[in-house]
Structure formats: C-alpha cells, structure tokens
Write a structure and sequence with these properties.
Purple Acid Phosphatase, chain A, domain 2; 5-stranded mixed β-sheet; 26% strand; globular
Length: 232
C-alpha cells in the first residue's frame, strides 16, 4: 500500500446500481465512484441524463464503470470518450489520481435466471472472469468492479424456484483471489443489491482492504441505500 499524506484526507463517495435513480450526495469531495448499472431501460437518453447529473456533482473526479444492465455501453465503448475533464469512464482500464492508481472492470459471471436483456459484460465461467482480473495491475490502490468477490458482501436471496430461506453467495472466487494478491486500499462494487455495506478493517486497527458494496437500490429495486463515504 502507498502512504497517503498524513496531513491531508481524501474524501471518496461511492454508489452503484442506480438504475436511473440519482442519490443525494453529502456535499462533494475528491472522488465520486459509481460502480455500474447506470440506467433502468438502457436507452441513450438515460445515459445522457446520467452524465449530466454525474458531471454536475462537486467532486474533483467522477469515476464510472458499467454493469450487466449497461448493454448500450458495451455496444458503444467510446460513448463517454469526450465527457469532460472531471468524468472518467473505465472499462478494463486505469486512471491515476493524486498518487492513487485506480482500475475499473465491469465483468460478472452469468447466473441462473439472469434477464437475457441484462447480459452486458458477462461471461459463463469464473475461469473466464479470471482472465479479466489478470488485467488488473499489481500496484492498483483502488479497485472498482461490478462483481463482488466471493464471500464478501455478495449474498442474494434466491430468485428462482425452489426458493429457500438461506442466502446464496454469488461473488467471484477468482476475484477474491486476485484482490488477496493485490491488496488494494479500497475495493468497491455493487451488483448484489442485498449486500449493501462497508467492511472497514481500520475499525479494528488493521490495514487490510476496505470493501464497499454500494448498491443504491435494494433487492426490490427501491432506491433506499445512501452513498457510502470512505475517508482515506
């Protein structure tokens, strides 16, 4: 891990899975991170509306990735290319901000019952995902993925019969392994709406990775989860 300036705090607000909802933000900061599933109907106008909202926010940089609902962005990879100096779209790519190396990746593994209209940036196996994670540089400080790692804020309620009371882990095993190797300061994601939470090891005196599932909507697609603020 890098050593941040002890005399300066970095304010990072994180949200995900907006589905054309726009959360109230606390009042600006250094970074706004949005981890995919930007629109509700995947229409071009919705991406325009999203860009206008995001660009208006009071942050030095807005960092955005796509999710499995964002078919339009997979078909139009350069859509956000000229979106202004403060708006950064990452797709298996990186950006450096004030000494922090940031990487964004939209990929997830398909799951039983997935809506066939929501299969952007999906692969069939975790082995295929592992090839995507190999692209993540070893010196990444902030990792943004749409998929959660396996076993970390990745539980969902079964959506197809037979329905059971137990929650299911649906995160990526290979992503968990890659994060363990890289040891970023912060790993943020969404996708599993029920997993909304921050796990901050600093609360217990450790210096391990901070994990954030920042899904704005819950399992019923209700926009109820406020953005999560991380201060580094």
């Amino acid at each position: 891990m890098i050593n941040l300036d002890e005399n300066k705090s970095m304010i990072i607000d994180i949200t995900s899975d907006l589905h054309s909802n726009y959360p109230f933000l606390q009042g600006g900061g250094d970074l706004l991170i949005i981890a995919g599933d930007l629109t509700s109907s995947d229409r071009e106008k919705e991406y325009d509306d999203f860009w206008r909202w995001a660009s208006y926010q009071d942050y030095k940089k807005v960092i955005v990735i796509a999710g499995n609902h964002d078919n339009f962005l997979q078909k139009n990879p350069d859509y956000f290319k000229d979106s202004g100096d403060n708006f950064i779209y990452l797709c298996d790519s990186g950006y450096e901000f004030e000494g922090l190396k940031i990487w964004g990746s939209p990929w997830i593994k398909k799951f039983k019952g997935i809506n066939p209209k929501c299969c952007a940036f999906t692969v069939d196996t975790d082995e295929e995902l592992a090839e995507k994670w190999k692209l993540i540089p070893d010196d990444t400080n902030i990792l943004i993925t749409h998929s959660p790692p396996h076993g970390i804020l990745d539980k969902i309620k079964p959506r197809i019969p037979p329905r059971i009371d137990a929650m299911l882990h649906v995160g990526s095993d290979s992503l968990l392994s890659r994060v363990a190797d890289i040891k970023p300061i912060l790993h943020c994601f969404g996708h599993t709406h029920e997993g909304y939470l921050m796990l901050d090891p600093r609360d217990d005196g450790y210096k391990d990775t901070i994990y954030v599932n920042a899904s704005y909507v819950n399992e019923n697609y209700e926009p109820v989860n406020p953005p999560i603020r991380v201060v580094l």
